[in-house]
């Protein structure tokens, strides 16, 4: 395969699922570009310039990219949406296929470690998004369990049953090392080890391309694994049962339930003016949601 053919079969992988974002360009089985941004930068401001930098460095333009890959989840809800929106926006106009890659699988594949690799991302509320993989230099990546949002303690069986070294990678790794760091098989990556989730996503996307598992850009969806805290709070039953506004309105409604007319409610200030009832106000707010 010559250089031009390699570029035609190139894969541009984008990761914005966590605190650090990255881009990798893979062509002909070789990494032509790979960069991971420092943690703490705003993906909405830095990710597109990084993609532009990757394309310029490799002589590609969006219409000449062979296929795209993106970490589709789990991960930061906002980060996933930013990454997917960018990739879909660049792929869709040119009918380019997209590989939606598991963030956890990409982290394991991009770790360069041999043994049992547990990819763990901070899921807040004392939980991690985690999955375990058997990684070897020859056979590549073999999944041990599904992606799941769980307490780090739920990984105990995997750590106990592993015959070889166990590594934790990702921004939730320290939570796991705090619990399992003294285990007989548990090891830390070598000093200076760098995790490239985008590179892992690129290599997994190449396998998906070979297996015919790519998707049209319009069909790619994020894989959140669970609802966001806001979605849980503002879901129907929870909103009306637990929001402070609902409780206040409910108590008010009970106190006026036996009044004979709406005027008794609307003139409750006793100043001769008509005011909308709190009941009608709460109904208007519910329609807004």
Write the topology of this structure:
Blueprint: H1 3-8, E1 11-15, E2 22-27, E3 30-36, H2 43-58, E4 67-73, H3 77-91, E5 97-102, H4 103-109, E6 115-122, E7 128-136, E8 140-143, E9 148-150, H5 156-161, E10 166-169, H6 173-180, H7 197-210, E11 215-216, H8 229-233, H9 236-242, H10 244-256, H11 262-266, H12 278-288
Parallel strand pairs: 1-4, 4-5, 6-10
Antiparallel strand pairs: 1-2, 2-3, 5-11, 6-7, 7-8, 7-9
Helix pairs in contact: 2-3, 4-7, 9-10
Structure characterization notes:
With 289 residues, the chain is α/β, with parallel strands linked by helices. The protein has three domains: 3-106 and 196-226, 2-Layer Sandwich (Nucleotidyltransferase, domain 5), CATH 3.30.420; 113-180, Nucleotidyltransferase, domain 5; 231-288, no CATH class. The chain is 39% helix and 21% strand. It is built from twelve helices and eleven strands. It has helices spanning 3-8, 43-58, 77-91, 103-109, 156-161, 173-180, 197-210, 229-233, 236-242, 244-256, 262-266, 278-288, and strands at residues 11-15, 22-27, 30-36, 67-73, 97-102, 115-122, 128-136, 140-143, 148-150, 166-169, 215-216. The strands form two sheets. Strands 3-2-1-4-5-11 form a six-stranded mixed sheet, sandwiched between helices. Strands 6, 7, 8, 9 and 10 form a five-stranded mixed sheet that branches. Strand 7 (128-136) and strand 8 (140-143) form a beta hairpin. The protein starts with a helix and ends with a helix. Mean pLDDT is 82; it is low at 230-234, 239-271 and 273-289.
